[in-house]
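Okay, can you check this protein?
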Amino acid sequence: MKDLGGLMKQAQAMQQKLADAQARLAETSVEGASGGGMVTVTLKGTGELAGVVIDESLLVPGEGEILADLIVAAHAVAKTKLDAKQAQLMQEAAGPMAGMMGGLPGMKF
């Protein structure tokens, strides 16, 4: 065995970097829009829905199905952005170890 103590220190340092990245992600928010900006959804870094903005022109009888579709689409856009931000932060935190970590349970890259 080479330097087990050194490996443990590296693992602890990486674990701290990952924890810091997760904390930064929790403070992040992303927006997703659909319908040319008629519906905007805001997601917190934790995935929690933080806000929905709906253009008043959609708030008329008979537009419920269209409105529902636009909310779902805006959420999908926001979720994609959030997933990309999470992957970026974790990649930055793990650095060269990211390729090895991707297959470990609980590690998403």
Remarks:
- The beta strands are 29-34, 39-44, 49-54.
- Residues 64-94 form the longest helix (31 residues).
